[in-house]
Each structure stands twice: as C-alpha cells, then as structure tokens.
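This is your field. Have a critical look at both lines of this record:
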Amino acid sequence: MDKPSFSYSRLLALSAAVLMTILLYAHYIQVSPSPVQASKYDEDEAQVRYILADSQLGGVIDYYRQFLDQPNIAEAVRRWDAGVRVANLYRFERVILPETGWAVVYEGTDQIIDGMDVLLTTDPLPPYDNEAQVRYILADSQLGGVIDYYRQFLDQPNIAEAVRRWDAGIRVANIYQFERVILPEIGWAVVYAGTTEVIDGMDVLLTTDPSPPFPWDNQAYFPEVWSQFDKNEAQVRYVLADSQLGGVIEYYRQFLDQPNIAEAVRRWDAGVRVANLYRFERVDLPNIGWAVVYAGTDQIIDGMDVLLTTDPIPPFDNEAQVRYILADSQLGGVIDYYRQFLDQPNVAEAVRRWDAGVRVTNIDQFERVVLPDKGWAVVYAGTDQVIDGMDVLLTTETLPPFDNEAQVRYILADSQLGGVIDYYRQFLDQPNVAEAVRRWDAGVRVSNID
C-alpha cells in the first residue's frame, strides 16, 4: 500500500516552531495589535482556519486565549477546544519570514496561505473506499507507527476512516500475526510475522468484528495455569486479576481472536476491576512462570474466587469511614491503595464518590501524619487527634450562595495568570471560592487577561 510521504524538512520546521514559540509572542506584540497577520488572508472564516493551522503547526493555542475579546480568535479557540483540527496539515509549514516573523506558508514556499485552503476535520469528505488500507493503517499504528503521523493526512478518506476508528478505541484483534519491519526500497511496512511479505489489510481482524458468543471454547495459553480452575468465566476473572497485579493488559490484546481473553479485555476497557485484589499475589513459580496465587501461598487461584467491581456487594453502613477515606486520599493517601479492598462496602462507596469527583471542601482543617503505634492517620490540623469522619465536609453538600462576584473574578484572573487553581480547591467550603472553581472547571476564562 502506498503510504503518504513524509518530509524531513517539515519535521525540522515543526521542531523549530516549538522551540521558537517565545519569538512568536514577541513578534506579534511588536508588529500588530492583532496576533495574526490578518491582512495576508481573508478575514472571518479564513482567519479562524489560519489560527487553527498556526496552532497545530507549533503555535501555542494558549497564546490566542489572551485575545478572546476578538471574535475570530474566540471562534478559533472554541473550535480547537471542541477537538477540531486541520485535515490537510501536510500542505503547510510554519516558518519565519523576513520582515514578517512567524507565518503559515504553503509547504516549500514563502507564500502565506489563504486560510480557506485549510481543510478541517469537520469538513465533509468523500466516503472511504479501501477497507484493506484502513485496516493496514490500524495495524501499522498498533505495531509502533505513530497514529499522529496519519493525522496530517485526514483529507484522504481512507486515512480519515482509520483515524476515526482508532480514536473510537478500535484495535487489531490478531496483532500477534504481524510485525512492523524495514524492507529494502520500501521502508517501514507491516508484514506477516516471521516473513518479509507485506500483509493484505483484509487479513487484519478488528475488535469490532464478530466473535463467538459467551460461553466460549477455552483456548489456553498456559495449560499449567488454566488446568487449575474452571474454564470460561474463571479464565476471564483470572486474566483480570493477572492484569491488575502487574501483568500487562496490552499483552493480552495480542490474543483478542481468543474469546475468553477478548471478554476479559472488553471488561477491563469498560472499567471492570478486581474488588478483592488484596487476597492475591502474582509470583514466578518454578516450572510454570508467572501465575496468580492466593496471597502468601504458591497455590494458583480459582478464578471464581475473584470478585469484580460489577459483582453485588452489601450497602455501605459507615458514613464517617467513607468521609475519612476521602480526606485521607485527598491529603496524600493514594486512592488506588483503597481499590484493593472494594469488596468492603464502605471502601467501595468512598472510591465510588472519589471517581465521581467528590472531594473534601474543608481539607485545610486536617492533616495526614504518622502517629506512634498507628502509622499514617488523618488528624485535626496542629494536633495528634484522629478526626471524626463526620467533621469532613464534601463538595456534594449544599453551600450558601456566593455573594461576592468581584472575588470570584479575582480568583479566575489569579488562576489564569499562574496562581494554581488546585490551591483554591482546599477552600471549597467558602462559597465564593467554590463558585470560582466551578466556573474554571466549566471552562470559563478571563477574556481581557492582557
């Protein structure tokens, strides 16, 4: 398959563009009140597209955020934040021109572009017409070819379709059958494993292709392991435990044409994890290799002893413990530590709230310290008294309405100018601070920050 050509000179230009961003700032400030050379191309839509190309070629989009009171710039930033990108980026370069400074030009020239020549990922394309090419690109990307390389060529329908599928999470199910190698007179190519034969893309199986239904026929990769427990659901749970204990889930992705493994990976990608992980260990056993065993033993587990986060557990019964765990996690205790104990209802409820974004609003009232004979504990600030979890206030609790718009706007300006927004998150029990943080998280920024 013919792959798009890549210009090494363009790579150098892109690298230089990143390194010289500060010069861009200085030039625009000195030359023009507008950060863009608007006189070089049509205004409005052309300017919007020019800014998107400039940003994608190395200009920092945050530079333009200083000028959101200018409608064309505001529209470009809005589209950028919505994920809109340039589809034909390979046609352009970002270079320093004499007496002009940084500018976007047609590749290989010093002619500043007409913004209307910039195609966007939201522009309509003809339908793709080569399924084999689409699948080849997916295999190439998964084997080490960088998907972002292909993003330069999104004006080509087959490439655009491959990138769309990649971004939707579609991967190659039988990737172990292929390799990515350098071939004489061809360069990098995807071949059948152990050969120099370039693959037919239609031999690439995707994770969206039909697979056998559950229950599945078991195809064991480690007979010594699989023989120790029931097949099917037990194998799925074993794979999940193995992956969470250090076995790399990406290893299993090589075998997605095997239904048991495919089901385990599907659940992993859906966020399913092991709820009683503390009961197991992953060790290297003689004559077997890496295996999941019961903690402190060399007995390989029965996969059906693995509890999953999708399995039912009793309702939580200790609100104070839930709040204590949230405070401990926010003060430096690692939330992932608690994920080992999701079979314990109060721990599971705390982790559920944490993952939903619930945080402690009066965290400044507490500290996390090491106490004699207790170890790490959450105490009232300046004391060694372990807290009562019911003294912990959460972001889900009702606050009085904010009453100082000036303070809210001050905090937003302070955060945008380098003050860390996460500092203010310590004081979410204060209504004005909470309102400023809420707006920041909603994407509200200061338009006249300059």
The chain has four domains: 8-117, 131-203, 223-305, 319-391.
